[in-house]
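On to our target:
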Amino acid sequence: MVRLPLGAIVVCAFVSAPASSSAEPSPQLDTKSHFNLRVGAATTDDNGRATICLEVSVWRQLSVEGCGTGSGFLHQDDGSQMAHFRAKWALWRSKLPRGDFIVQAGLGFAELEIGADEPGFDFGSPDGNSASGGEVAASVQYQAPFGRGFELVASGSIGIAYISGANELPTSPSRAQPFASFELGVGW
């Protein structure tokens, strides 16, 4: 078992360049906003809380994202939830009349929690009520400017996490954990 502190996951850098203004897919897939904060729902969460995602642009088409219900720091509710921590690469961007449509691929890890969250991440055999493992994801995002440097952001993701200790958790029969989510929010 390897337990990593949450502080080891924090990423501080961000750089962004303006997007292309052509109507064709942009060959230089720069992201427009530095940050976006979204709220929505995910198929893996049954604790009655909304999914919250924060995405930070790191460099050109590379961003990092964290998504979850905030278990462990916003609430201590029972129920299952999955938190996601991933790097995302923009594969394709198309300028539309009122915004941008972006296709992204993601690679990272997920933490499946059954009950209240415990600090850190368990990769391997869990000793509590959570287990972590790698994930891959695909996302589509629509960004529409609405003034003063802000954008409306709609995002949908699908993916699968492989969590080797998931079958040792109560009510989780499978190591393969598929997921889908949808969120709306604002970028700046």
